[in-house]
Give the backbone structure.
Amino acid sequence: MHQEFLMGNAAIARGAIAAGLNLVCGYPGTPSTEVLETAAKSNDGSLYVEWSVNEKAALELGAGAAYCGARSMVTMKQVGLNVASDPLMSLAYIGVKGGMVILVADDPGPISSQTEQDTRSFAAYSKLPCFDPSSVQEAYDMIQDAFRFSEQYRTPVLFRPTTRVCHGYASVTVKDPDEFAVNQPEGFVRDPAKWVIFPRLSYQAHMNIEARNVELQSVFSDYAHNVLTPAQAPDCRRGIAVHGISATYVQEALVGKSAPHLLKIATPFPFPEQLALRFLSSVDEVLCIEELDPVIERELTYLCGKHHLNVTIRGKLTHDVKNAGENTCASVADNLAAFLGWEKPAAAAMDPPPALPVRPPVLCAGCPHRASFYAVKQAMKGKKAVFCGDIGCYTLGNAMPLDMVDTCLCMGAGVNITQGIGKIEPDTTCFAFVGDSTFFASAITGAVNAVYNQANMTLVVLDNSTTAMTGHQPHPGTGRTMMGQIVDKVSIEAVLHGVGVKTVETVDPLHLDEAIATVKRVAAEDGVKAIIFKSPCAVLIKPEKPAAIDPEICTQCKHCIRQLGCPGIVVQDGVVTIEHSLCTGCGLCEQVCPFHAITTGGAD
């Protein structure tokens, strides 16, 4: 054993490898992404690593490996679990042979997600065991336990770190390579009665699951990471029930104070009932501090009713703890002060910090998506049009001055929402924007639906040759895999032609006049048609010579700023100027300036 300073996600990956991991796959999404990336970097050649096209594909791939006796891990964020939920619900009935851990990183806040979802609640819904680490060290240790429990009970298990565990850093005690478990998969053994799901077999499988989960309630009551700590004062009859990163916040708030009874839950499902009853027998009142759903609070309330215990349970349901957003050290300290009758923590005596400037997220300087949106906006000027967006960097096209995202629901949804609007408002020119990675992940079926059901819409694929928002991971259109292989690129144009889209035109959006003309021509056609705006992500290219503004020609009309909103064009001392540290020389502003006052070395 030795010590290393690791990010939580890195610790999870390293722990999984120490557990004898054979295969890891997933779909990138903050805060989970670094788990798979760390596994790839730590690969000695014995591990198969894959970015799958979406979470459903990844989960099914991981299941196939587990059917062979391999130890597999599938990674995603909480909204990705929605995509994977169809195979997951059936897999809970089928079970596995090798250990299979489904890592779902939750994002309280949310910090970088569309929703606040609590995978602990999904665990109860799917009847799958769930592990909920509270620290980086615990994440390293617990991921190994998760594989062990998965194999012992022949079931996939959920592993649920949250953002502050995923992206926190700590000194972690890790195993040396000679201490790693080695797993040699047996291989797939044909057994249709086991691996083929039928309603008749599912009934018995459901009965087995219920019996297993009752057993796990008892087993988890003795699990080392479920901790019951008695109060420091013998006459104390108050308790705190906590889990995850909030347990760390509670420990910090209790430094130097007399601690009440503490119950830390590391396995929210199946709930460690016997341990919880021992906790409840020592208290009259409990405060539950958790993110995000009142999972522990509901379980304790249920146990009090079931066993006729006169204990008051407080938390989100009683509005003693906020019922949305992530907890913080300060919010937990306030919750404890109110519950335990402490003085509210005083703010440190110091001058208030200066107000921070408002910095809304924007498309990067030189981002080709800015040119794509602008081209469509100019082409549709004066027309009744709707612009349905999607999840990715291009969601930022909603910001002023572009104002080009009218809807955004979830990955791939824009293609189908566009069709729905078009069916109700046939006089509206309908556009659906989607990125290249998202096209492969979840938009192809929408394109098929549009062709089959005779929609009238324009699909705009913003192809910047990467998965930009989550850290530039490869996808089927990039021609490389996470195993380092160079493979044939999957052509978006060929896919669209293959599903029946007759008009598919590709254009560089930074050639603005050509892009505008293409949009006007293609959008005027009936039926389903597509435009592929193809230009590489600005982060991945070597910048050209930055733009320059001729002060003799510039009238300070600020048309470039009002039209584009590029962060590389700024106003300093009342004068429009180019921020050379940001400008990539893309040439878009040169083409937009009505007085030709801007020149770029990289423009054609």
